[in-house]
Amino acid sequence: MARTQVAIIGAGPSGLLLSQLLHVNGIDSVVLERRSREYVARRVRAGVLEQGTVELLQRAHVGERMLRERLVHDGFELGFDGKTTRVDLHALTGAAVSVYGQTELTKDLIEARSAAGAKLLFEAGEVSIEGFDGAHPRVHYAHGGRRHELHCDFIAGCDGYHGVCRRTVPAQSMQSFERTYPFGWLGILADVPPASRELIYSNHARGFALCSMRSLNRSRYYVQCGLDENLESWTDARFWDELRRRLPAAVAEAVITGPSVEKSIAPLRSFVVEPLTFGRLFLVGDAAHIVPPTGAKGLNLAAADVRVLYGALVEYYRTGRRESIDGYSAQCLRRIWKAVRFSWWFTSLTHKFSDDPFNHRLQLAELDYLTGSPAALGSLAENYVGLPFDGAG
Ligand code: APR
Ligand code: PHB
């Protein structure tokens, strides 16, 4: 009968980072991932890290390449009314953000787990969990053509929004909060130099656009699009043309175009489930909350959950004390709702919700106020770089 201390469902950033931090602190875990290693390693996601996430990666001994290859950004630009205004994060908060692709981060974590001889099972199918409301949680799964049963002390549900863990919790034991947005993000990745040294979030009457990057030779661009858009109808040429139309002229001229190496549409959603703990089951990251990508909070919020949970498990296994374990849900939800609020606000400020010109005038007025008020800019900056951790490890 297989046994571990912490069974982790899902090998996304949450599951891998939790497993690595537990390992660094001598706590055993098994990670069960339904997809293949190749699929998980090549998934294209966002790439802006708060300083808190950078520190946690170093604590997990997986920060070396990130520190070497990241782009440190002391600010970003807001584009509106044909011009750009810089938000000086460093001057406003003393902090910066790091641009380092989630794809690279996931590769670093998989390598570190494999190098440590971790029990990281890819293509683990039919995962089901039980007994987490009692003293002996168990996980059942299929792997290598056989069925397996894993006994553990705790289960960490790091299996994302579509995972099995949250779906196994009885509906009456939890409450979920959701807001969907009437648009998505069409994103492309292209091996061309970025149009600007820093990110540009652009509000335009035709819809939102974002200029981002992965390196000085690989750019990531997004345009707001309808949810019913058909990806095939978006040729690279159409994408570049629409992007340029939504950027201030000086930026549009600086856009260097090229063939896309990845192109995809992602819906926008705000979602939170409460609580995050069900007996010996903890929901972590996207399994518990989703934010629209506008505020670059998805990955950082997942890392913040992992920071609190691994700290609580280390305390439990070292001292037997359960306070932090019992406090996991409440502590994380405070930070989660602040990030949900910020991501909703930033999305509301920069995206086109209707053809009503009154709405756009309101957005332009708020952007004009914001960029002229150090107090308002300070609030934007402190949320963007990541709010301080209150007492969490
Ligand atoms: N059994 C095993 N694995 C599963 C199951 C299941 N039933 N369901 C889902 N998974 C795996 C998925 O294949 C995925 O690899 O769980 C993993 C969840 O990873 P993510 O969705 O990346 O969630 P998380 O690790 O919390 O990372 C959150 O990733 O998606 C970005 O924007 C998001 O930045 C945020 C971060
Ligand atoms: C990205 O680079 O993919 C990115 C950056 C900032 C965001 C969202 C996505 O807010």
Shape, per Cα inertia axes: globular
What is the count of helical runs? 13
The level of helicity is 25-40%
Distance separating the two termini: 34 Å
Bound molecules: adenosine-5-diphosphoribose, P-hydroxybenzoic acid
Beta-strand level of the residues, as a percent range?
A: 25-35%
Written account of the structure:
With about 400 residues, the chain is of the alpha/beta class. The chain is globular. Strands 7-6-15-16-17-14-18-21 form an 8-stranded mixed β-sheet, with helices on both faces. Strands 9-3-2-13-20-19 form a 6-stranded mixed β-sheet. A 4-stranded mixed β-sheet has the order 1-12-11-10, with no helix packed on it. It has 13 helices and 21 strands. The model has no long low-confidence stretch (mean pLDDT about 95). The protein binds adenosine-5-diphosphoribose and P-hydroxybenzoic acid. P-hydroxybenzoic acid binds near residues 47, 293 and 294. Adenosine-5-diphosphoribose (APR) binds near residues 9, 12, 286 and 298.
